[in-house]
Prior knowledge:
Chain A: This is Gluconate 2-dehydrogenase subunit 3-like protein. Chain A is an all-alpha fold.
Amino acid sequence: xxxxxxxxxxxxxxxxxxxxxxxxxxxxxxxxxxxxxxxxxxxxxxxxxxxxxxxxxxxxxxxxxxxxxxxxxxxxxxxxxxxxxxxxxxxxxxxxxxxxxxxxxxxxxxxxxxxxxxxxxxxxxxxxxxxxxxxxxxxxxxxxxxxxxxxxxxxxxxxxxxxxxxxxxxxxxxxxxxxxxxxxxxxxxxxxxxxxxxxxxxxxxxxx
Amino acid sequence: xxxxxxxxxxxxxxxxxxxxxxxxxxxxxxxxxxxxxxxxxxxxxxxxxxxxxxxxxxxxxxxxxxxxxxxxxxxxxxxxxxxxxxxxxxxxxxxxxxxxxxxxxxxxxxxxxxxxxxxxxxxxxxxxxxxxxxxxxxxxxxxxxxxxxxxxxxxxxxxxxxxxxxxxxxxxxxxxxxxxxxxxxxxxxxxxxxxxxxxxxxxxxxxxxxxxxxxxxxxxxxxxxxxxxxxxxxxxxxxxxxxxxxxxxxxxxxxxxxxxxxxxxxxxxxxxxxxxxxxxxxxxxxxxxxxxxxxxxxxxxxxxxxxxxxxxxxxxxxxxxxxxxxxxxxxxxxxxxxxxxxxxxxxxxxxxxxxxxxxxxxxxxxxxxxxxxxxxxxxxxxxxxxxxxxxxxxxxxxxxxxxxxxxxxxxxxxxxxxxxxxxxxxxxxxxxxxxxxxxxxxxxxxxxxxxxxxxxxxxxxxxxxxxxxxxxxxxxxxxxxxxxxxxxxxxxxxxxxxxxxxxxxxxxxxxxxxxxxxxxxxxxxxxxxxxxxxx
Lengths: 208, 535
Ligand SMILES: Cc1cc2nc3c(=O)[nH]c(=O)nc-3n(C[C@H](O)[C@H](O)[C@H](O)COP(=O)(O)OP(=O)(O)OC[C@H]3O[C@@H](n4cnc5c(N)ncnc54)[C@H](O)[C@@H]3O)c2cc1C
């Protein structure tokens, strides 16, 4: 388990019916910072503490990192868990090359040294259709985004429960929580005609 | 390969979606010994999770195959796409059967048009059943789309559907399987009816290739898939069949045939070509609640005009004004309101950005997500030009599986021609006019930069037709040059339909059964097609 010391303890979640098989990889601190900085570029959030270098801090609500990006990225279910450490190293190297080419005023030794705007530019380049390794960078972005917008590391009911999950993108999106563990909506619609039907609709309601 | 240990069946059906389950039922009911091999697991409705967690039904029964320029979403379970689908079941309009594409000749066989298919559509409508829905049964999102269309001078129709709205709780979890059994998947009709007639269905059996035996029978070679980590194989085996019904879906059927080519001999040129994504493209609108209230008079009864993207059951309303047979080909399309859950349904949505950079990630995207309940997803179904081609088959299945479940990389290459791109642009402009120009919100298409175009309606990769050069199947669904192999799934549909395809796939599958019986009879197996309903 690669639980970041800065993030809240893992919530008690129900076991999924088929738990992913396999072990999570062990990441170095530097790799964790790089991956968190990448995730924070994809869905930016607030800093966890004043010295938080991974999070650029361009927003004041939790972003992908607080919502569990590292948990998702290292989950054996993804199939990329063994590669994310290497991707983190590569990201730091790319950032240095990128900064050198642009002669940035401040020294850049790793991706997290870039400001949000530059981080965003570099992520845009890495995920551009012309980038040979686009698919891999996109997958890292995808799983980081999912930590925020679908929380695949948690039961969805838990992700929506503030008592269980303090930071939740699904809650920020306004995803309605379940009632007694289930989703059901009594009233589903406006209940009245809202347009004329197309002329020639047949008896089954089909186009002709 | 006639060792005593090899099991023998009259018919082996590969895949258990619409194309597989329907023939399996009729052939078993007619007295054939039928085996269905399905690569995915079998779940009961008690096992459908309302959760997006890895390992829940959302990833167990679903499949996402990324290609080069086109990604395909589908089912991966007993029941196939019917377990994950939205159950919108319109029939294809008349003009769809007259399409010519860029080839300049009719694509469908002369034996099939809307009129000749209607009796088969009728049968499917009774079997599932499919019902004409009223405005009372339309979700808030469908209602909002109808009201927007009406404001723009357009018509809009509630979609015929295989959802029993008396049982439906509008939870919108139907992509993970419908726990209420309100959605009529094949697990509620054709599959149990096939089993009641002695058909055997084996889950987690992925067919890899076919070989031909000296007597003209086929041996079907499969591997046994691990129940959690689908990348793992836990065994292999083979079964013999007098006749094979191939129905692994349009993203998998041609791959099985490609892999079988060294054993079976040359495949028709159209195997693995002419793939169509049914012309799909999604736009996401972020609606302006006050405009919906003030201009359209929408009111949920609690002060909210809309904010109800999450409530409902997928697509329920479409505008069909551009499904006009007087319009030229590539200018006809439908626009349906749609729902996709977060995750698959959010990543490709684009925000407008101040720096002109990509809108699918970053601060503006986060802001767009914060208005998620005010989203309206618009699903364009245009006429594409069958541009997809499959590359050399991967070592197994139809994709190199990347994740334990869900995600794989396939060999499909798709480069939309100018005809298709112009059709999408026309539909995008239409959506913009109806929503943005009318002041109901902002709208942006999903990006195609990340996974290419995408489809939940793969079609035509092994298609029917009269022209042997451009179709893989004759009008009986038999594979040209390979007697005894029938393809009855969405791969057989020759071209984009401008509507959701399952009803057409199902009607074609119904129609194919008599032809399969004829071939069985020729091979000395008498199977009576009784035209029964799966009750
Ligand atoms: C999210 C979603 C929503 C949809 N909503 C609608 C809708 O509202 N209306 C509509 O008309 N259509 C809808 N569709 C499309 C619909 O599901 C398909 O058009 C339909 O299922 C196609 O039927 P088929 O028999 O061709 O293939 P499928 O139903 O996909 O069946 C193919 C089966 O073969 C199995 N298989 C694949 N490879 C192998 C192998 N090698 N060995 C053994 N088995 C294999 C698959 O696991 C699958 O179960 C939707 C699809 C998706 C993904």
